[in-house]
Amino acid sequence: MKNDKHVLSILVDNEPGVLSRISGLFSGRGYNIDSLCVAATLDPKISRITIVTTADMPVIEQIKKQLNKLINILKVYELTGSEFVEREMALIKVKAKPEYRAEILRIVDIFRCKVVDVGLNHYTIEVTGTEEKLNALLSLLKPIGVKEIVKTGIIALFREMK
To answer: What is the pLDDT of residues 60-96, one digit of tens each?
Structure first.
């Protein structure tokens, strides 16, 4: 069986302990969470949790069944295999030696990023896009010198019918 990346979108009551129960379900059964993002929805009583995990289909089906049994879970959606929009944000601190500054700014322009902080020896770049876009940007910046990186993890929504 092939392990694939799966994106789960979970609507939950916005209450203390809900995230702990979900992460406990994953860790207690030996499932890994590749990324996790949580925020309130338009309704402040409801939060959306986006979890990315890597597993085969029988394991994903088991995870969904177990999630649906938890208190405070309103709905579990699997986005993988459907039409959906996903984004991830990263802040990347890059060494900015004088001889590389123009090249860094050119790369920032090509990838439609923003320089959000400038120091004597670094630029901090904000980038939003798919995982592939972030990886492509990083592959160009690594030879210049990436000092530090932080990523949000994937957020995602179903596409609407056209």
So the answer is: 999 999 999 999 999 999 999 899 999 999 999 999 9
Domain 4-78, architecture per CATH: 2-Layer Sandwich (3.30)
Give pTM, 2 decimals.
Answer: 0.86
Q: How would you classify residue 112: left for phi > 0, otherwise alpha for psi between -120 and 50, otherwise beta? A: left
pLDDT value at position 161?
Answer: 77
CATH number of this structure's domain 86-154, picked from the four choices 3.30.70.1150, 1.10.8.100, 3.40.1030.10, 3.60.20.10: 3.30.70.1150
Angle at which helices 57-69 and 18-28 cross, to 10°:
140
SS3 102: helix
Burial 19-57 (b: 16+ CB within 10 A, else e): beebeebbeeeebeeebbbbeeeeeeeebbbbbbbebee
